[in-house]
TrEMBL record:
Keyword vocabulary terms for this entry: Hydrolase, Metal-binding
UniProt GO cellular component terms: cytoplasm
Gene source species: Mizuhopecten yessoensis (Japanese scallop)
Protein name, per record: Iduronate 2-sulfatase
GO molecular function, one term: iduronate-2-sulfatase activity
Length: 176
């Protein structure tokens, strides 16, 4: 279901809630000679994200009510529940809604992503494994210069690392 910010307001959805809309990892459309949903390439994890904070945004200017952001976090005056962690998005929201051009903000230049694999080697369900077929999870940490990905068993209690990869991004433009 698609909903715009005006739809949210029209149906009187709670004005004290933060709306965080994002896209799941999409299909890579031929990048790197592949057609895949679960890819280790950076292009596969660059997805749009919108944040709507009713009490922080200007209701007279629709363009100012949503902001595209690239960092995910937790601190905008709401409770964090299980499986939430990270840096606060609050300072970025405060910055873009302050209208003070003299303000400065420091952003974390590290991005994190994860993707699943059904097995150690390619198989018929490598592109779309079901949840119960997932045996390996890749967790990537990406900076301006490097991307590191450890592949770990999906059962987090084992702690077994299958493979770690560290790529120097400036050495080949074909890998980003």
């Amino acid at each position: 279901m698609m909903a715009s910010m005006s739809d949210i307001e029209m149906y009187c959805i709670e004005a004290r809630q933060v709306y965080y809309l994002f896209c799941l990892v999409g299909w890579s459309l031929g990048e790197h000679q592949e057609w895949s949903k679960y890819s280790n390439f950076e292009v596969a994890v660059r997805v749009p994200m919108m944040v709507y904070v009713p009490w922080k945004t200007c209701h007279s200017d629709r363009a100012n009510r949503t902001r595209f952001c690239s960092k995910v976090s937790k601190k905008i005056s709401f409770k964090c529940y299980v499986c939430t962690e990270g840096k606060s998005l609050g300072p970025l929201i405060n910055f873009v809604t302050s209208n003070k051009s003299s303000d400065r903000i420091t952003l974390n230049s590290t991005a994190f992503s994860q993707y699943l694999r059904p097995s150690r080697t390619p198989s018929t369900n490598s592109d779309e494994p079901s949840y119960n077929q997932t045996t390996i999870m890749g967790y990537s940490l990406t900076t301006d210069d490097f991307r590191y990905t450890p592949w770990v068993g999906f059962n987090s209690s084992t702690g077994m690392c299958y493979l770690g990869m560290c790529m120097a991004k400036n050495s080949t433009s074909m890998e980003v």
